[in-house]
Amino acid sequence: MSSKDVLENESSRAPQRIRLPLQFRKIQVKSTERLGSNFIRLIFAGAELEGFSSPGFDDHIKLFFPDAGSGEIRLPTVGPNGPVWPEGPKPVMRDYTPRYFHSDTQTLAIDFALHEAGPATAWALAAQPGDWLGIGGPRGSSIISSDFDFHLLVGDETAVPAICRRLEELPSTARAIALIEVDNPGDEISLSSSAQLELIWCYRKGVAAGTSTILKDTLANLQLPEGEGYTWIACETKMARAMRSHLVKERNMNSKWIKAAGYWQLGAAGADSAED
Predict the structure, then answer these.
(1) Which residues 6+ apart lie within 8 Å of 26 measured at CB?
(2) Which DSSP state fits 14?
(3) Distance between alpha carbon 84 and the CA centroid of its chain, in Å?
């Protein structure tokens, strides 16, 4: 392949970045559903979902949880330089990936991994139809081409919604490999894809999340297909960075086609995600 062909190929595969207007909404729980032993799906509805959009499989929205005492949902307004908060304490906030949004029914699904006993998990477990939640965003999306020789998706429970979305959107001509860390086989959930999928579940077997090396070890021993692949990694921050480093330094993979996101940080509750 000539250098011109390489440049044209890289250009066609470059992520398409979409900027979305920032908006804050109040939405209402419509139904709840347990997925396996370690996930719960909440379906939300509400008039304020009109115009909601989440085109990217790993989009983030900010969830604003009700005050534990009053039940009030405090949301900022949109100012010229971003969110403007009213006086008073800010609510508990966490980033989550929209599992899906159906514009015809104005329903939004969010899946919660239950491996940590934080305020988001506690709220999701107790949520009932009619309960309210605040959301903001997504502020933007990154659309990744399916035109790679293979797609490598690696993550723990927190990455499952994004991995599921990506697998569902890949065409039948695509080849995908998914490595997903959970505690035990009972935590597996159903995944669907038209792509040629190799699915590998990795089990911590009681080891605390964020301290097991099973995901990194499985990746290190994985035989990758020939050609150029796009890799997406999301899990505990240090683990995500270690796996990215392994792929670049020891597998000689193109760093342009690797996204590694720290969806959470061991010992730092509520830490914002970090990306490399």
Answers:
(1) 46, 48, 73, 75, 132, 133, 134
(2) S
(3) 26
